[in-house]
Amino acid sequence: TDTIDFHAAIWQLKNDSIVLLDTLINAKNKHIPNFFYDETTHTLYYSVCDNNTHCSIYSAKFNNGNFTDIMRLPETINAPNSNNTQPCLATINNTQYLFFTSNRKGGKGGYDIWYSVKDSNDYSMAINIGNTINSIGNEVTPFYSENDSALFFSSDWYENYGGYDIFFSKGDLSSWDIPKNIGKPVNSSYDDVFYRINKKNTIAYLSSNRLLDKKTPQCCNNLYQIILKNEN
User: Fold this and answer.
1) How far apart are CA 157 and CA 111, in angstroms?
2) pTM score > 0.90 for this model?
3) Which pLDDT value is given to residue 183?
């Protein structure tokens, strides 16, 4: 029987075709399962995982159509003997913060959301985002919407419809509201993760392994988009 050596990679839509993003970013024999691109600094943040799913966060600059300055982020982000993944950069009160997920020591549960202050190419020691957000379960795939001053994330602990549901909390790093379930039809009885909103605040995206239809067996994650209501 033929076997396929499958590795997660980042792909892009280019000239109406799906093509591999870059062979430098998509390193051979590594899994590249998630990423965040910061348009202001033209910096790609992404996870690199080995076959044992041990993950670290990297960054790369995008200049003149090429990726350069590829680097593994310091141990203030990539704590030893832990998985560090799902990066997301946000600006809050004129300060840049790198949010990410980690199961390092000092957390509240399994995977927690952590953050680090970014100053040029320096990253402060990561700080746990706190008990209002993190639970004894798993909190993953953080995304901070600067337009809404809200943190979106997925959790398997808070009251939900099954698996991972998407939640949000208004606030900033000094104070967070109690997380609220974003509700149906965005959430389902399956895993709903990686909620993202575009810069224009018109479209949201998520990844889910929900059933496509009653005839299609449940398999893996697919991408979905949501047209957001314009309240103006």
Assistant:
1) 11
2) yes
3) 97
- The amino acid that residue 60 corresponds to is A
Cβ atoms of residues 173 and 151 within 8 Å: no
Tokens of 114: 């952590």
Centre a 10 Å sphere on the Cβ of residue 124 and count the other Cβ atoms it contains. Answer: 14
Closest by CA position to 109, among listed 141, 143, 157:
157
Question: Do residues 145 and 204 lie in contact, with contact meaning Cβ atoms separated by under 8 Å?
Answer: no
Amino acid at 106: G
Q: Report the pLDDT value the prediction gives residue 58, as an integer from 0 to 100.
A: 98
Interatomic CA distance for residues 181 and 171, integer angstroms? 16
> What are the pLDDT digits (tens) for 75-85?
999 999 999 99
Q: Rounded distance, CA 33 to CA 199, Å?
A: 22
Residue 208 contacts by C-beta under 8 Å, 6 or more apart in sequence?
188, 190, 191, 192, 193, 221, 222, 224
Position 50, amino acid: D
pLDDT tens string 137-187: 999 999 999 999 999 999 999 999 999 999 999 998 989 999 999 999 999
**Residue 190: both structure tokens together:** 């399956």
Give the C-alpha separation, 150 to 148, whole Å: 5
How far is Cα 34 from Cα 10, in angstroms, rounded to an integer?
A: 7
Amino acid at 177: D
